[in-house]
Structure formats: C-alpha cells, structure tokens
Amino acid sequence: MQQLIVATRNRNKTREIQQILGPKFELRDLTAYPEISEIVENGKSFEENAKLKAIAVSKELSGLVIADDSGLEVAALNGAPGIYSARYAGDKATDKENIDRLLGELGRIGPQRDQRRARFRCVLTLARNGQMLDMFEGVVEGTIADQPRGSRGFGYDPIFVPKGFGHTFAELPAELKNRISHRAQAIRAFAAKLTAIKPSD
Length: 201
Ligand code: ITT
Known about the structure:
The protein has 201 residues and is α/β, with parallel strands linked by helices.
C-alpha cells in the first residue's frame, strides 16, 4: 500500500484522487491534521500555488506529499476565474455563488463567438522534506452550459460540459469524469512516474 499525503482541505479533491488512483494507495489529506495552519495561496499561477502548497506541507509532515491546484478558465472572461476559482464570488463563497457569478459575467458580455469555450486545468506537484520532486498537468476542454445541471461532483461541475459530451460533469457518472478530467490526467501522469521515485530521492 503506497501512502500519500494530499495537501488539501477540499475533501472532493481527495475523493476524486482516491478514485483515480484506486485501492493500492492510502491517502490522507489535511483534514486529518488540523494543527497545520492555512496555507496562503499567493502565487500568480496554478504552478506556483501547487508548488507552495506541496512544499509547505512536506516541511511539516514526513512522506510523499502531493498538492493539486486547479480551476476553470473561460475564454470570453480572459481565463477567469482561473487561480481564483475557489473564491470567485468572495473568500467564503459557496459553489452556487461562484457559478452564479460566472453565469452573470458571461451574461453581461452577451452573445459573442466562442463565448462559452472553457477548460479545467489541474497542476499537481509532488514534494518531500521541503523539496519539490516533480510537477504534472492535466487539461480538459469544454463549454459552459446556460444553466446548472446535475448534482454529482463539486465546484463548477454543474455548468461544465466536456468536449464530445452532451452532459455536464455533474450529470455524468463519477467514473467517467474520473477518466477524462484535468485531475485524472495529472494524477495518471504522476502515478506513471511514481515507480521511478526511490524512497531516498
Ligand atoms: P485546496 O487549496 O485546499 O486544495 P481549494 O478548493 O481552495 O482547496 P484550489 O485553490 O485549487 O483548491 O481551487 C480549486 C477550485 O477550482 C475548486 O474549489 C473549484 O471551484 C474549482 N475546481 C477545480 N477542479 C474542479 C472540478 O474537478 N470540478 C469542478 N470545479 C473544480
């Protein structure tokens, strides 16, 4: 059993990562370590934020640490909400408030070619003992639905329709999302590399 610490307090991410990696991995996230203080995500990119989360946590806990920084980039909003996806409608915003703001912003722009083109990005970093070991990325392209649909998943899933599908991530089975998502791609790249990492690296 490979043990991994996930540098997140977002249980939805941990659940998906566990489903993608399967039962050979035993994951533990920061909800098990309330003593670890909130990490200030002041990076300017997914890469910077993923790196600072993994490094900060790997200084406090021993073992392999992975961090996932992810978000939704909407073409017509010049890539927003991007790294601000979790707090688009404010610091303690709910998923519904974030979705409402996004649909509101798109509504204000009005009809425009490619207006609803969007993608989810995930940058995953791997660290140990305060050192970054590797970085992986995943992207899934799609469009923004007119209205939220479906109840599965989390975050912006009810308004994201992956390319080639007629349903939102929140309508599609979790197994399907976890096969094609940005997170699935990044995690698979990580898992493929993991066997090459020696215990002492
Ligand atoms: P941690 O920093 O503790 O990991 P967080 O939720 O704040 O948790 P991020 O800063 O990476 O994490 O923000 C990610 C946000 O992007 C997340 O809260 C969702 O709003 C959105 N997001 C990322 N992946 C998503 C997915 O698979 N489906 C829907 N929304 C997603």
